[in-house]
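pls design
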């Protein structure tokens, strides 16, 4: 059994998949961020839209999210730092031309009604 896409050393079905399938909610901003990376890796665009804060959702088109997630080969997630409401990370991937890329982001999250949401990020 291989490790989860998010880099945790447990299988996907025991790590991020329960969040993506809506079985349970991520209990921290970092767990939500990790599950969102796994959602990009697996093309789970609905989850990405649903875990984006409602105030920012109009800027995130499901079709574009799905196209971008599927155009890239997701290699590795590296969480550099996290606080209660922020996560700084590097996401490693190959773009559609198989060129190595690194997406560096400092993301902000918000807890509302016991659910974490992605608000925005600085690249």
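designed seq:
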């Amino acid at each position: 059994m291989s490790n989860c896409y998010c880099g945790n050393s447990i299988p996907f079905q025991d790590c991020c998949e329960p969040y993506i399938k809506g079985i349970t909610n991520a209990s921290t901003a970092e767990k939500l961020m990790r599950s969102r990376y796994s959602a990009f890796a697996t093309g789970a665009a609905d989850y990405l839209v649903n875990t984006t804060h409602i105030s920012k959702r109009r800027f995130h088109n499901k079709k574009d999210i799905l196209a971008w997630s599927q155009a890239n080969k997701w290699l590795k997630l590296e969480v550099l730092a996290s606080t209660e409401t922020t996560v700084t990370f590097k996401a490693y991937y190959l773009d559609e031309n198989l060129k190595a890329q690194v997406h560096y982001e400092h993301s902000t999250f918000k807890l509302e009604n016991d659910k974490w949401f992605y608000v925005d990020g600085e690249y």
